Amino acid sequence: MPVDTKESMVRVEQEIAKCDRCPDLVLCRKNPVIGRGADRAKVMIIGYVPDIKSAEETGSPFRNSPEGELLLQLLERAGCSVEENAYLTYIVKCVPKTCEHKDRSAEKTNRLRLLGENNICLLTDRECTGRIATPTLLERENCLHHLSREISVTTPHVLMPLGLEATTTILEMYLSISPSHKTMSDYHMRVYSSPSFKIVPLYPPELIIQNEDTYSLKEYEKDFHKIGKFLEMS
Ligand code: SF4
């Protein structure tokens, strides 16, 4: 009997919501960021780690942020929407932070949510000033399990990792391609094929917003137009 997709997705979401595999990340997270979008997706957009201000705040990817808005607008031009055929997620679902409030005492680390109302750290009663950091390899490995589940439920035709870290992680995971290029310009818009889906890496939208000298919005818009055509054929 085919497993109901919606039910499977709810199960994946519940697993992520209560996941505590990475003690350091659980310690300071406000919300794990659960993917959002169509239960059956044509395209899956995969960032590396959630944005600390918007995604972590809402627990939902690419929301309430200029880069999220840009991404959704361009996806729409490519004939995609989270309501119909696109799914947005991250490789690591909790924001890795360098946080001065980490307290490793056994009793305190048993608490799963350490930030109370108004961003107050429950360990120290001070506002958390943690800044975004790079996840460890183990944290990344821990969370790839959730990504695999999201992919197996939504069955996208195309994976689109955003940025160098997300791209090299996905290529290594699904095509055993070791990172051979040092810059995103070597990967952007190249098409890789796996037996189950295509992989098309992209510059992340924040780079286009923050540094149009590196890659122009006009070119980025054209890329999404090409992606729309490509998705029609996939
Ligand atoms: S980063 Fe992923 S694996 Fe680690 S605690 Fe968060 S949801 Fe779990």
Explain how this protein is built.
The chain has nine helices and eight strands. It is globular, with a radius of gyration of 18 Å. The strands form two sheets. It has a six-stranded mixed beta sheet with strand order 1-3-2-6-8-7. A two-stranded antiparallel ribbon has the order 4-5. The chain has one domain: Uracil-DNA glycosylase-like domain (Uracil-DNA Glycosylase, subunit E, 3-Layer(aba) Sandwich). The chain is 39% helix and 10% strand. A hairpin with a 4-residue loop joins strand 7 and strand 8. With 234 residues, the chain is an alpha/beta fold. The longest helix is centred in the middle third of the chain and has 18 residues. About 2% of the residues have low confidence. Bound molecules: iron/sulfur cluster (SF4). The site of iron/sulfur cluster has 15 residues, from helix 2 and helix 6.
